[in-house]
Design goal:
heterodimer; A: alpha/beta; Pyruvate-ferredoxin Oxidoreductase, domain 3; Rossmann fold; 3 domains; 7-stranded mixed beta sheet; 6-stranded mixed beta sheet; 21 helices; 23 strands; B: alpha/beta; 8-stranded mixed beta sheet; 11 helices; globular
Chain lengths: 613, 345
């Protein structure tokens, strides 16, 4: 039987690399993704790893996974179910056996399937049989033995040899998908440029894996996923944290300001701080503070001093920053607070995704303390929404909370690189020496923002702070003044609606069912809506990126559908916010609070039930 | 003309008087509060510094002393409780051209803001911290603070405190502080000189101001302020000079083993046997002993006790940025966007 007879043509394929958290699965997945992107596929990736750096070996709790969805049509999610599973140990099968497609292919390291590991994973003797995986294709390769054999003549220590096992598995996957090894070999050369023997060892093992695939070809089918038709341009892979950091950098450049980030490491937001800390070449002042509070307070100080100031965090950190966000509200200084949401409350599920900080972002402060809230919806559009967050903060003199989540932060997708000339200008209302007497809380009639007088400018000396003030910056306990200032702060935030694009629909403009989402669930909701429409269901999608203020046409859009269902990864925060604002609409809910993204199947099933009710 | 921050050449700096630094706001501290005198000394020092008025930024936290920025006709920011050090750090790092002053109290800096206090000192960010120490919470009307002496009877310790207090100087040295000075609120001349020295010092300068709360802790520093006895109970440390004190200038300090010893001159002990103050000594051992001298066992040290030159965070960060900008191929955002692994479609 020749290879061609067994090639399965597919529009899309989902591959999951899974093993112990020390097995290098994140790297393996990333390398496969990059090779596929260069081949011309559309793709979306999602890493799924435990909070422990090295959880107990061989246990289900220690399994680290990396899922990649490649296609030659549009791909918007990392996929629900896997076509191919690379399992470095029995625990990896345990962790993934419920999310495999019928007829999936499992590649596993036979050498790791000994009694000890099988029992550690909670099986008796045969993982495949015990999980009822009778319709899968199995490629059981003695990877450990083969790797040792292939490198036996190289003077490498046993640890280094075993560390190449993931590259053997990757080689097999490259054979399965007929991918070029060139890009990965180039990666070895750059990564290990000072250690030629490591480059050589990895190349040998990668090829050995590929060749092993060819040798056993008769036993298993291979896949072909052709290149996709995508808009012309220069592309790169980008994850949400990197895109967020770059969006902030782009905004600083457009505004002609220095970028200051005061922040404290916290999963899954640390990538934003790391990315900006590396950008000294673009003049970034990054300040790793002693705690979350100092993170935002240094940023508030930098904002007072005239920088584009940002801080990055995740849920518990946002809680610690609450009081200081109120200070930024009161002093009406521009600041961007990036909150990469994770499972909560408390420490919760640090490495898992959730959309449960919405109410905290909206209301989690003392007093009436409105801020602008924006939510990004894909890894790459974190760039655009980080830029927009900064633009709004600077032009309206207001704190902006940008909500992303663990799924967006770590997920990657190809991104058509924009040119800075495509980005809009940013014009902060900086007070000038020649403007005459400076009153700190004098406002623009339209935007209601105050002017930003930068310390160092002669003649504009002034005092601001957390106490309620009059227009002149004098502390005031006058009841009417406090009420007036409270309302003005609220109206100023509401006025940002002028910058909020109208809500657009995917699907028909009116009809039976409107599926509503916000933030990081976009890819899943879009795919589910597309599939339901292809199946003839009358469903449209409205996805929100602007949470406060909401798009001006929201009520009108909601009114055009017979049923409205809000899907979100919490127990109903956005739906309750909508209920508060649009009491006429009867909202239904789809909720999931498992630390995991939606699956397309579960959204479709719930929409069907609602439609049929 | 050289100014006192960052060595920038400035021209046409107007001649200021202290009142140029006073704002039009009504000062609302209690009559007799030590803060009034601090305000006078600070405005006096600023007028003598040759720094343009618009370059000053006063940042505070919460507490009586933290109202200070409102009374200054400079850039000012009244922050939230405990966070002045963090806000001031952000101001200075973002704009190192500014002369940044943090105004804080014993509760603000050493209780709720203790973390920021030690870390700004560790980083050696070039700000001047005025630490008003009245050993009590004044704004909340009389609760004990982290500097209240053990046994203090206050509204929240009706039977006396059972905890040991912090000594600010000890904490500063423990956090690798490079500048520590101590003054008394009512001593305008000494205070003015110390504030000027703090401003000129590059790095975090901490000035502990022994300040009287006339309402809730009146007379807490009276022993050191008493006109008749204060020269016997305090020692004015001057760089390069022997450690002599006493109204008759007949007492001094010597080192005995690892401890300080108060000696009386005469009977074979002369001035040359006394310790000579060296504020610039990097090794903190002797400074540590000096900041910890407490009345009545010892005279309380006033003046600049420690002033050591060391690289500042703000300048180190700028130096790093400049160095990397020289070597990196990424000069603007478009360069960054196109850097690394990209492909054409």
């Amino acid at each position: 039987m020749s290879k061609n007879d067994r090639v399965i043509e597919r529009d899309e394929v989902v591959i999951r690399f899974s093993g112990d958290s020390g097995d290098g699965m994140q790297l393996t997945g990333t390398l496969f993704s990059n090779a596929s992107a260069l081949f011309g596929n559309t793709l979306s990736t999602f890493p799924d790893y435990p909070a422990e750096i090295r959880a107990p070996q061989g246990t289900v709790g220690g399994v680290s996974g990396f899922q990649v969805h490649v296609g030659h049509a549009e791909v918007n999610t990392p996929g629900d179910f896997a076509d191919v599973l690379v399992a470095m140990n029995p625990a990896a099968i345990k962790a993934n056996s419920k999310t495999l497609k019928k007829g999936a292919t499992i590649i596993y390291d036979l050498d790791n399937f000994n009694t000890k590991n099988i029992e550690k994973a909670g099986y008796r003797e045969d993982p495949i049989k015990e999980d009822g995986l009778d319709d899968v294709n199995i490629i059981a390769a003695p990877i450990t033995t083969l790797v040792k054999e292939a490198l036996k003549d190289y003077e490498l220590d046993p640890k280094t040899i075993l560390r190449t096992k993931n590259m053997f598995a990757l080689g097999m996957v490259y054979w399965l998908f007929d991918r070029d090894l060139k890009y990965t070999e180039e990666y070895f050369e750059t990564k290990f440029s000072k250690r030629p023997n490591i480059i050589e060892a990895n190349k040998i093992i990668l090829r050995a894996g590929y060749n092993y695939g060819e040798t056993i070809e008769a036993l298993t089918p291979t896949y072909r996923v052709g290149p996709a038709e995508i808009p012309k341009g220069t592309y790169r892979n980008i994850n949400g944290n990197q895109a967020t950091a770059w969006g902030l950098l782009a905004a600083a450049e457009k505004a002609g300001l220095e970028l200051f980030i005061g922040s404290y490491p916290i999963t899954p937001a640390t990538g934003v701080l790391e990315e900006l800390a590396a950008r000294k070449d673009l003049g970034v002042k990054s300040f790793q503070a002693e705690d979350e509070i100092a993170g935002i307070c240094t940023s508030i100080g930098a904002s007072f001093a005239g920088s584009l100031a940002v801080t990055s965090t995740s849920g518990p950190g946002l809680a610690l920053k609450s009081e200081a966000i109120g200070l930024a509200v009161m002093t009406e200084l521009p600041i961007v607070i990036v909150n990469v949401q994770r499972g909560g409350p408390s420490t919760g599920l640090p490495t898992k995704t959730e959309q449960s900080d919405l109410m905290q972002a909206l209301y989690g402060r003392n007093g009436e303390s409105p801020v602008v809230i924006i939510a990004a919806s894909t890894p790459s559009d974190c760039f655009r929404f980080a830029f927009e967050s900064a633009r709004i903060a600077l032009e309206h003199m207001v704190p902006v909370i940008l909500l992303t989540d663990g799924f967006l932060a770590n997920g990657t997708e190809p991104w058509r690189i924009p040119s800075m000339s495509e980005m809009p200008a940013i014009n902060p209302p900086i007070a000038k020496e020649a403007d005459g007497e400076y009153l700190p809380y004098e406002r623009d009639e339209k935007l209601l923002n105050r002017k930003w007088a930068i310390p160092g400018t002669p003649g504009l000396e002034h005092r601001i702070g957390g106490l309620e003030k009059t227009i002149r910056g004098t502390v005031s306990y006058i009841p009417e003044n406090h009420e007036h200032m409270t309302l003005v702060r609220s109206e100023k935030v509401a006025g940002v609606v002028a910058k909020v694009p109208p809500l657009e629909l995917y699907g028909d403009d009116e009809g039976e069912l409107l599926l509503v989402g916000w933030g990081g669930t976009y890819g899943h909701l879009l795919t589910a809506t597309r599939e339901m429409r292809e199946e003839g269901m009358n469903v449209s999608l409205a996805h929100f990126n602007y949470i406060n203020p909401l798009p001006a046409n929201t009520a009108e859009v909601l009114g055009r559908f017979r049923k409205v269902v809000v899907a979100e990864l919490n127990s109903g925060q956005f739906v309750n916010y909508l209920r508060m604002n649009f009491g006429k609409t009867e909202f239904k809910q789809i909720n999931k609070v498992q630390g995991l993204p939606f699956t397309i199947m579960e959204i479709k099933e719930k929409c069907k039930t609602i439609l049929e009710a | 003309m050289q100014n006192d921050i960052g060595g920038l050449i400035m021209t046409d700096i107007p001649k200021y008087s202290p009142k140029d630094f006073k704002s039009d706001q009504e000062v609302r501290w209690c009559p007799g509060c030590g803060d009034h005198a601090v305000l006078s000394s600070v405005t006096k020092a600023l007028a003598e510094l040759d720094i343009p008025k618009e370059k000053f930024a006063f940042i505070s936290g919460i507490g009586c002393s933290s109202r200070f920025p409102y009374y200054m006709n400079t850039y000012g920011f009244h922050g939230i409780h405990g966070r002045a050090a963090a806000i001031a750090s952000g101001v200075k790092v973002a704009n190192p051209d500014l002369s940044v002053w943090e105004v804080t109290g014993d509760g603000d800096a050493l209780a709720i803001g203790g973390n920021h206090f030690i870390h700004v000192i560790r980083r050696n960010i070039d700000i001047n911290i005025l630490l008003f120490n009245n050993e009590i919470y004044g704004l909340t009307k009389g609760q004990y603070s982290p500097t209240s002496v053990k046994g203090s009877v206050t509204k929240t310790s009706p039977f006396g405190t059972v905890e040991e207090p912090f000594h600010p100087g000890e904490l500063v040295i423990g956090a690798q502080g490079k500048f520590f000075a101590r003054t008394i609120d009512s001593n305008v001349q000494l205070s003015t000189e110390i504030y000027k020295a703090a401003a000129r010092h590059e790095g975090t300068s901490v000035v502990e101001i022994l300040q009287n709360c006339v309402i809730f802790n009146d007379g807490i520093h009276a022993a050191l302020n008493d006109r008749e006895f204060r020269d016997d109970r305090t020692i004015m440390l001057k760089d390069g000079e022997p450690m002599i004190f006493g109204r008759n200038r007949d007492m001094g300090l010597m080192l005995q083993g690892l401890k300080l010893k108060v000696v009386t001159l005469g009977n074979g002990i002369s001035e040359k046997d006394l310790l000579v103050h060296d504020a610039g000594e990097n090794t903190p051992g002797l400074h540590s002993l000096l900041v910890n001298m407490r009345y009545p066992a010892y005279p309380v040290a006033l003046g600049v006790i420690r002033s050591v030159n060391a690289p500042t965070y703000d300048m180190a960060l700028i130096g790093q940025i400049k160095k990397i900008q020289q070597t990196s191929g990424i000069k603007c955002m478009d360069d960054l966007l196109m850097s690394g692994s990209t492909w054409e479609v």
